[in-house]
Amino acid sequence: MKNKKLIGFLAVLVVFIIVSFIKDNHVQKKRITENEIPTIGVLQFVSHPALDDIYKGLVDELEKQGFKDGKTAKIVFQNGQADQSKLTSMSQHLLNEKSDVLVGIATPAAQALANQTTEVPIVLGAISDPKSAGLVRDNQKPGGNITGVSDQSPVKAQLDLVKEILPGKKKMGILYSSAEDNSAYQVEKITKEAKKIQFEVKSYAVPSTNEIAQMMQVMAKEVDFVYLPTDNTMANAMQTIVDIANTNKLPIIPSVDSMVEQGGLATVGINQYDLGTQTGKMVASILKKESEPKDTPIYIFETGDTIINQKQADFLGINIPKSILEKATIKGVSKK
Question: Transmembrane region positions (predicted)?
Fold first, then answer.
């Protein structure tokens, strides 16, 4: 009888040990799987259509590359909403999340991330000249933990387009934010190119969106058209700029495709979604251990798409040559 009780006890004990082992093994496997999912921390400076398209392109490309948010990767997204004071704490939050790769969308966000770590890989999305922004030592040989994608627009092609669709217009006004390092670099570059082809260039800097309306009123009396560089402050205030420009029948040539759709006249620009997908490819390559930031040159697009806002052209009474329309992407349709 005693032996039977002992055997029964031992049988129960064995079953208990086996069940515990299976349960612990399952928990351990689950923990390992969770730990193996890479974390991608994304810091975006502000929401506007151009930067939002970059983020969408980034997420879509990561999924194509096998890093689907919530399943095979964890994407932690932070948006500073143009408040510089939040960027530092958001960068620290992304590091606390144990991000395997960080992504900075727009220069202020990228600079905030770079100030927090020299070890975690950082991929730049939409920075015109990472070297002049102090993010890399050299655009071809970054040398540190940062690489990424430039949003440098094809300036010469843009100015050639202006000559074709606005013949006789020589006075070019560049409106930009004096608070963005990225913009000052572009203004210098655009001014040099514009002067080569005999444009009269005058730049108009504003410290914040609060001064844009007043500055546009000044520009309306002094220039033939407004050029907008890749500038977050301008993108964020695009509706204000368009309203005042339309009141004064002043054409706007933005450098970004999405800003044409918002009321610009035309551009030769980089598709912002494509910019995001290229950023995603670089992030995926780093996660797969195929590349390292220090050896990866900054990616620069060599060509852009011609974008025309036909509705805006009709409103301004501008006849776009058929040769341009045939190769362009048309945004906006007039109700005739």
Answer: none
Superfamily of chain region 39-151+272-300: Response regulator (3.40.50.2300)
Q: In 10 A of CB 224, how many CB atoms?
A: 16
pLDDT at 31 (0 to 100): 42
What pLDDT digit, counting tens, does each position of 123-150 carry? 999 888 899 888 999 999 999 999 999 9
> Which two three-digit tokens encode residue 267?
């551009």
76 and 99 in contact (C-beta within 8 Å)?
A: yes
Place of tokens 């002094």: 222
Q: Which CATH architecture has domain 155-269+304-331?
A: 3-Layer(aba) Sandwich (3.40)
Q: What would the mean pLDDT of 8-32 be, rounded to a whole number?
A: 55
Q: What is the pLDDT of residue 14?
A: 66
Residue range(s) in the chain whose domain bears CATH number 3.40.50.2300: 39-151+272-300, 155-269+304-331
Q: Which residue has the higher pLDDT, 193 or 31?
A: 193
For the chain, the three-class secondary structure string (H helix, E strand, C coil) is CHHHHHHHHHHHHHHHHHHHHHHHHHHHHHHHHHHHCCEEEEEECCCCHHHHHHHHHHHHHHHHCCCCECCCEEEEEEECCCCHHHHHHHHHHHHHCCCCEEEEECHHHHHHHHCCCCCCCEEEECCCCCCCCCCCCCCCCCCCCEEEECCCCCHHHHHHHHHHHCCCCCEEEEEEECCCHHHHHHHHHHHHHHHHCCCEEEEEEECCHHHHHHHHHHHHHHCCEEEECCCHHHHHCHHHHHHHHHHCCCCEEECEHHHHHCCCCEEEEECHHHHHHHHHHHHHHHHCCCCCHHHCCCECCCCCEEEEEHHHHHHHCCCCCHHHHCCCEEECCCCC
Which amino acid is present at 136? Answer: V
pTM: 0.73
Helical pair 107-114 and 181-196, crossing angle rounded to 10 deg = 130
